[in-house]
Recover the amino acids of this structure.
């Protein structure tokens, strides 16, 4: 029997989710059922926004029942374009465990140049968003304060630049910490000696910029680790290979047909 997909299309979905899922529905090479609420009668469940409380429960229920899940969320790069890129997820919040060597063609097509912006300056600490807090069930800023103590112990002479997920999120008030909500992430990375985050896409931005990373999860955990006292030396070749692979988990609505081909191939491969 051919694989079938249930695609959740609720009315409260963000415009970028509407664009991506609409494109996936139009390009679907397999039978799809489009619904605003989860039923669970198909092999594959596709959603936008893994952090959404209701859709996350549907995702978990489908996996527990033995189904396969595909998720979409804001992409690893070029998120600001009208045809904004979206990151692909299969059965997990991040593609970390499924990263493998891939052809360089998709990364090359982005024309994103790798940089060497690292310096001996500040350490950039990235805050968590409210969706992460809902998943981890931790008090606000508890992870950030724990990581800050580790940073100050390991790098007693460094200053810390704290960048919250959103400008309106609470700041981190501590000695030797400056809170910055202005400027681009590229500006924040310039001259940094290290980026520390939980699973932010800033880790990918740092990889492109050549700034060392400490992260606990997310796609970049396929390349970096979470140990502030044991930061691996990552070569330019390793960074490039990772980005070449990650490009196959980053798709625009206009590439929906290609995205279907890739994701179904990975699912059918087991």
């Amino acid at each position: 029997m051919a694989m079938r997909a249930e695609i959740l299309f609720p009315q409260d979905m963000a415009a970028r989710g509407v664009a991506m899922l609409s494109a996936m529905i139009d390009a679907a090479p397999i039978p799809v059922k489009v619904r605003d609420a989860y039923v669970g009668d198909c092999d594959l469940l596709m959603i936008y926004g893994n952090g959404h409380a209701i859709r996350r429960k549907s995702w978990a229920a489908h996996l527990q029942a033995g189904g396969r899940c595909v998720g979409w969320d804001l992409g690893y790069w070029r998120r600001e374009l009208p045809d904004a890129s979206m990151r692909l997820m299969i059965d997990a919040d991040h593609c970390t465990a499924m990263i493998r060597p891939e052809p360089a063609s998709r990364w090359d097509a982005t024309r994103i140049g790798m940089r060497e912006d690292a310096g001996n300056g500040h350490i950039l600490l990235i805050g968590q968003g409210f969706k992460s807090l809902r998943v981890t069930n931790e008090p606000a800023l508890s992870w950030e304060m724990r990581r800050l103590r580790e940073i100050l112990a390991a790098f007693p002479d460094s200053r810390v630049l704290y960048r919250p997920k959103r400008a309106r999120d609470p700041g981190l008030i501590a000695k030797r910490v400056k809170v910055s909500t202005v400027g681009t992430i590229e500006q924040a990375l310039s001259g940094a000696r290290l980026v520390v985050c939980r699973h932010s896409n800033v880790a990918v931005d740092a990889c492109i910029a050549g700034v060392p990373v400490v992260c606990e999860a997310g796609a970049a955990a396929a390349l970096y680790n979470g140990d502030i006292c044991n930061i691996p030396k990552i070569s330019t070749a390793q960074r490039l290979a990772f980005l070449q692979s990650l490009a196959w988990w980053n798709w625009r609505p206009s590439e929906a047909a290609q995205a279907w081909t890739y994701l179904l191939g990975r699912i059918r491969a087991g």
Q: What stands out?
A: The radius of gyration is 19 Å. The chain has two domains: 5-85+252-268, 123-246.
